[in-house]
Amino acid sequence: MRNIKLSMALNNMKHLSFFIIVLLFISCKSNQALPTVENVDINKYVGTWYEIARFPNFFEKGLECVTAEYSLLESGKIKVVNKGHKTSDVSKINTAIGTAWVPDKNKTGQLKVRFFWPFSGDYYIIALDSNYQSALVGDPSRKYLWVLNRATTMNDSSYHKLLNIAHQNNFDTTLLMKVNQTCN
Fold it and tell me: Are 126 and 155 in contact (CB under 8 A)?
């Protein structure tokens, strides 16, 4: 009788352990869904964008007057040239050249970008005004966020509208830092 009770207890422990592992697996879902702009016209999106604000990140540390220049390649991919002036010496410019592409033609607001093969990252256009003058870009992990504009400055109304969209999509907008765009 004692062996039967022990066997039942062990069996229950196996089921409980399995249940706990399944719960842990489900709770460790890597990224919460992040809605993006539908029907982005890449031909209108290419060109120069000025970084108005960003989440701090290691690859832009100590940079100001940051720009992103996008241009279409014959392959259909997008050439990406990011430039930023060093805060310590604005005459020194860091440049990163990469490639972006739209993996799913039905989701043109969800791009991939690669600066170093074989690594690529998500480039999600979360918000974009109808004139393609301002944009909010991030990734599903919510670790990266950029406020971009076609001009070096952005009016407060447009900026706060993008911040509200970021906040509604579970980005911690208190992490945003404004980017100096007066390096001339």
Answer: no
Inside any domain, residue 66? yes
Closest residue by Cα to residue 109 from 181, 174, 152, 165: 165
- Please give the full DSSP string across the chain, using - where no structure is assigned: -HHHHHHHHHHHHHHHHHHHHHHHHHHT-S-------SS--HHHH-EEEEEEEE---GGGTTEEEEEEEEEE-TTS-EEEEEEEEESS-TT-EEEEEEEEE-S-TT-TTEEEEEEETTEEEEEEEEEE-TTS-EEEEE-TTSS-EEEEESSS---HHHHHHHHHHHHHTT--GGG-EE------
Model confidence over 124-136: pLDDT tens digits? Answer: 999 999 999 999 9
pTM (two decimals): 0.82
Domain that holds residue 86: 42-178
What total of structural domains would you count in the chain? 1
| Residue 10 forms part of a structural domain | no
